[in-house]
Amino acid sequence: xxxxWTVMSFTMRNKLRSKSFIVTTIILxxxxxVGANVPYLLDKFASxxxxxxxxxxxxxxxxxxxxxxxxxxxxxxxFGKAEEQAVQLxxxxxxxxxxxxxxxxxxxISDKKIRGYLVFNPNEAAGFPDVTYYSKKMLxxxxxxxxxxxxxxxxxxxxVKEANLSQEQLSxxxxxxxxxxxxxxxxxxxxxxxxxxxxxxxxxxILILLFMSVMIxxxxxxxxxxxxxxxxxxEIIVTSVSPLKQLFGKVIGTFLVGLLQLVVLVGAALxxxxxxxxxDSLESMGIRLDSIEPQMVIFAVLFYxxxxxxxAMLFAAVGSxxxxxxxxxQAVMPITILTLAGFYxxxxxxxxxxxxxxxxxxxxxxxxxxxxxxxxxxxxxAWWEIALSVAILAASxxxxxWLSAKIYRAGVLMYGKRPSVKDLIKAMKxxxx
Amino acid sequence: xxxxVLERVVKHYGDKTAVSGIGLEVAEGEIYGxxxxxGAGKTTTMRMVLGLIFPxxxxxxxxxxxxxxxxxxxxxxxxxxxxxxxxxxxxxxxxYLGQLRGLSRKDADANLKRWLERFEIPEHYxxxxxxxxxxxxxxxxxxASVIHRPKIVILDEAFSGLDPVNVELLKATxxxxxxxxxxxLFSTHRMEHVEELCRNITIMHRSRPVLQGSIKEIKSRFxxxxxVLAADKPISGxxxxxxxxxxxxxxxDGYELKVKSPDVAQRILRHxxxxxxxxxxxxxxxxxxxxFIRTVGESHE
Lengths: 433, 301
Fold this sequence. Notes:
- The complex is a heterodimer.
- By secondary structure, chain A is of the alpha/beta class.
- Chain A has 2 domains: 53-170, D-Maltodextrin-Binding Protein, domain 2; 192-430, no CATH class.
- Chain A contains 17 helices and 4 strands.
- Chain A has a 4-stranded mixed beta sheet.
- Chain B is 36% helix and 29% strand.
- Chain B contains 10 helices and 13 strands.
- Chain B has helices at residues 42-49, 69-73, 90-100, 105-118, 134-146, 164-179, 191-197, 215-221, 263-275, 288-300, and strands at residues 4-13, 16-26, 31-36, 57-62, 75-78, 152-156, 183-187, 200-205, 208-214, 226-231, 244-250, 254-259, 278-284.
- In chain B, helix 3 (90-100) packs across helix 4 (105-118).
- The chains are: A alpha/beta, B alpha/beta.
- At the A-B interface, helix 1, helix 8 and helix 17 of A face strand 1 and helix 3 of B.
C-alpha cells in the first residue's frame, strides 16, 4: 500500500511539473473560456450587423409598376414589423432590358450599396410572380428564409384580401398552432422542452468530456509506461515494487492528475457560462444550467470513473508490451477505434436514444460508459437496466484489470519487436504470472 | 547463514533452456563473479535472483529464506542497460527509488547527499539526468542501486562505458561495499576486474555452469604454460628448445613463450643464462582471460 502511494505521488508530481501538461491545460482553458463566450459573441455579431440590404430595380422616376409594387410595399411592411429588421429593401435605379437592369444591380452590389437583389418574373398561372434572389454570398440562408417568409405572408394577404374575410376570420387563420412536447417520465412530472434541451446539451458535453479525458489520460498512461520501459528504468522499478502496485499507483496517479485538469477546465468553462450575459444567450438556445438534475451529475461521475479505469487498464497493458514510444501510436490504435466507436454510437444516439442499437450497446462494456449515460440523460431506462449495465462494467473492469496486470507483468520485461499474442502468452508462462 | 544460495536452479523459456542446474553460494562480504559469453544465461540467473522470474526447478534462498516482499528490500540491482528518468531531477528520482525500497524520504535524501559527496558530484543534486555526462549518469545509477543499503547487490556490467579514472573510483566503492559486509553478485566481461575483485566465480556456457570455484583453485587446475623472459641482450635459439610451443618477441628484448609443461621453463632459464644475465624470468599462471576463452571457446568446437 505504502509503495503504491509512493508510485502515485511520484507520478502526480512529475506530471504536474511537466511543461507539456501545464501548457496543455492553459491552452485548453483559454480555448474553453473563448468557447463559452461564443454564443454570446455570435448574438452580438448577428444583431450588430444590421439588416441585410436587398435591392430591386426601379425606373428612373423611382417607381415600380403594378403588381410588383404592391409586393414590395407588402414586404416592407412585413419586415418593418419585426423587432430587429432582418432585411431592408433598397430601390436601385435600373431601366431598359432585363440584362441592363441586372448589370446595374450587380454594379450596386460591387459598390456595396446592397448585398443581393430580387428579380420578379411574372407567372400568370400562379397569380403571383416567381421571385429570384441573387446574391454573391453562398448559402445566404438567413436572408433567403426571411425573404421567403415575407413573400409568403404578402401572398397570403393578397389572397385573403381577394376572399374578403373579416378581421376575426383573419386572426383565426393566422393564429399559430400551439404544440408543446413534454417527455414522459415514470416517476416525476416529466421534462419540459427546456429541460430536454438542457439534457441533450449536458449529455453531449459530458460525452465529449468523457471521451476526451479517457483518450488523453489513457494515452498519457501508455506513453509513460512505454517511456519507463524504453529508458530501462523499468528494470529497477520492477525489482523494487510489485508490478500490480506499480500499475495501480500509476493509473490512480494519472487519474487524479487528469481529474484535477478536468476540474480546472470545467471550472473555467462554468465560470464563464454563469456570467449574466452568457446565461441569457444560453437560455435563448433552450439550455438552463439550473435545471440540471443532480442525479445526472452523479451518473456522469460514476460512468466517468468506471469508464476511465476500464480504458486506463487497457492502455496500460498496451503500453507495457511496446518497447519504444514510436511504436505506441500504432499499438493503441485498436483501443482508439474502440473508444471512437463508442463515442460515435453515442452521438448517433443523441437523436435516437430509444433505438435497439443503443439499447444493446448500453450493456456492452466498452461502449456502456458512453451509451448508458446517454440513455439515462435522454431516455429514462429502467433502474435494473442501469444496475445491470454498471454491474457488467464493474465486472469487466476487474477482469480487464486482472488481465492487464498479467500482461503488464510479462510485458515490461520484454524488449525487441512488439510481441504477438502468442509471444505474450509464452512470456506469461515463463514469468509464472 | 549464507546471504545468497542458489541450488540446482533450472529455467526454461518454452522449449529452450535458459539456465540449467546452476548452484552457487555468496558469502557475506564477498564479490562473486558470474561469467559467461553473451546469451549464456547470466541475465536470466540474475533476474531469478531478483525475483523477476521464478525458477522452474531448484531453490534460491536469501539468508535461508525463500523469496518474498521483505527480500526485495535488501536487494540492490544495477542493470546492464542503464536507465533513469531522463527528465526528472536526480534528487527526485533517487529519493523515489529509495522510498520504493522502504526508506523514508529523509533517509533517502541524506543517503543520496552522502553518496554524491563520495563521488565528488554534489552539484548534480538538482540537475536533470539528461543534463549529465554518461559517466555521471552511471554513478547516479550506481547510487540508485545501493541507496537503501542493500545486503545483497547485483551488479550487471557495472563498469562498462566508463573512463579509467571513473572505473577506479567505482571499483574502490564496490570494494568498500564488500568490506562493509555486502554480498555482491558481479557479472562482467572484463576478466581483469574479476581477478581483482572476486574470490569465487562461475563460468556459464550455454545455460550450464562449466567451471566453478575460487579463482586460485581454478587457476591451479590449469597448468602454468606461460613464461616471461627479459634479458639485457637478445637471446637466440629460444624457439629451438624442445617443449616451446610458441614464441613472441616484445619490444625491449622481452620474450613471451608458451610451453608444453612447467619443467620446460627451467630449460629456458638455463638456456638464457648461458647467453648472459637475465633481467626477468617468470613462470606465470594462466590469466582468467585465457581460462575463459579456453573453457568457453573449446566447448564451442
